[in-house]
From TrEMBL:
Protein name, per record: Phosphatase NudJ
Assembly, per entry: Monomer.
Keyword match Ribosomal protein: no
Listed Pfam families: NUDIX
InterPro entries recorded: NUDIX_hydrolase-like_dom_sf, NUDIX_hydrolase_dom, NudJ
Keyword terms of this UniProt record: Hydrolase, Magnesium
The Nudix hydrolase domain, residue ranges: 5-138
Source organism (scientific name): Trinickia dinghuensis
Family: Belongs to the Nudix hydrolase family. NudJ subfamily.
Entry EC no(s): 3.6.1.-
Superkingdom per UniProt: Bacteria
Length: 162
């Protein structure tokens, strides 16, 4: 019997600071309302930077311009339903730009909000994962890696150019 190859789920997240506050989303999950950075899964044929731009737009209706990679994080989550998953998360920081045309937020996203580090720390129990606070702490500590640290080797036309 051939054993299935294990692979982690690849996700991206955006850390956006503006005037001492951080962009977050409040989202409905199977475990209730949770706070997270704009984040989501890498899709087939997508680069990591294209994924974080897309996810931020879908979840906040703001354009995200990645400027640096904060870090790559691996976490294992055991869910109450018995499911378990390992996530490999690429967290980027950058700036946001408002769009001229209003757009609806992604399904499950209740709202985008801006919190200070103290406010974010105070609501730790409602974070989607421990990586929410860790990403902000690493950002505040000055962790930055150039975007070209992550290289995408494009084999065909399916990869977006971002």
């Amino acid at each position: 019997m051939k054993q299935e190859r294990w692979t982690p789920r690849v996700t991206v997240a955006a850390v956006v600071e503006h005037e001492g506050r951080f962009l977050l989303v409040e989202e409905q999950t199977s475990e209730g309302l949770r706070i997270n950075q704009p984040a989501g899964h890498l899709e087939s044929g997508e680069t990591l930077t294209a994924a974080v731009v897309r996810e931020t737009l879908e979840e906040t209706a703001l354009a995200f311009v990645p400027e640096a990679l904060i870090g790559v994080y691996m976490t294992h989550i055991d869910r109450p339903d018995g499911e378990a998953a390992t996530f490999l998360r690429f967290t980027f920081c950058g700036r946001h730009e408002r769009l001229d045309t209003p757009r609806a937020l992604d399904t499950g996203i209740i709202r985008a909000l801006w919190l200070t580090p103290d406010e974010l720390h105070a609501c730790r129990a409602s974070h989607r994962t421990p990586l929410v606070m860790r990403s902000v702490e690493d950002y505040l500590a000055g962790r930055r890696f150039p975007l070209d640290l992550v290289h995408t080797h494009s084999v065909g036309p399916s990869f977006s150019k971002s």
